[in-house]
């Protein structure tokens, strides 16, 4: 099953994004981010604990510093290389990254809308 339409607005804005099963790490979208199961599990932990949990965010083998988390989102950055955010529903992880020079706030907003839609749909 492909959920590419769920993240089309994020990718269409020039960002990278994917949806994963939170428990198995299986990608439900075309996986441009290439996150491993361990990265998905750590991302779920970062959403829950944020910087207080001293968790680094890793996406596709690149490690970022977790800046903060709130409710069901986590935000991360690496100086000079961009950053991104994770959003978590009860069964899914939505991940998105931006390159240096892109608008982090735009990615955060778009990804947050996808997370709220999925939560509202029971995921």
Q: Which helices and strands appear, and what pairs or packs with what?
A:
Layout: H1 4-12, E1 16-21, H2 37-49, E2 56-59, E3 62-70, E4 73-78, E5 82-88, E6 92-98, H3 104-120
Helix pairs in contact: 1-3
Q: How would you characterize the overall build of this protein?
A:
The protein is α+β, with helices and mostly antiparallel strands and 123 residues long. 32% of the residues lie in helices and 32% in strands. It has helices at 4-12, 37-49, 104-120, and strands at 16-21, 56-59, 62-70, 73-78, 82-88, 92-98. Strands 1-6-5-4-3-2 form a six-stranded antiparallel sheet, with helices on both faces. Helix 1 runs antiparallel to helix 3 (104-120).
Terminal-residue CA separation: 15 Å
- Structural class of the secondary elements? alpha+beta
What is the arithmetic mean of pLDDT?
A: 91
Helix content: 25-40%
Keywords for this entry:
single chain; 123 residues; alpha+beta; six-stranded antiparallel β-sheet; 3 helices; 32% strand
Task: Quickly describe the structure.
The protein has 123 residues and is an alpha+beta fold.
């Amino acid at each position: 099953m492909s959920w590419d339409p769920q993240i089309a607005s994020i990718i269409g804005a020039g960002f990278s994004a994917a949806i994963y099963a939170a428990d198995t790490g299986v990608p439900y979208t075309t996986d441009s981010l290439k996150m491993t199961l361990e990265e998905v599990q750590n991302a779920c932990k970062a959403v829950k604990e944020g910087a207080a949990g001293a968790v680094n965010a890793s996406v596709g083998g690149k490690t970022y510093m977790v800046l903060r988390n709130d409710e069901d989102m986590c935000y991360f950055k690496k100086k000079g290389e961009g950053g991104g955010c994770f959003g978590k529903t009860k069964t899914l992880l939505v991940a998105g990254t931006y390159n240096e020079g892109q608008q982090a706030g735009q990615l955060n907003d778009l990804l947050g809308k996808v997370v709220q839609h999925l939560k509202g749909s029971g995921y």
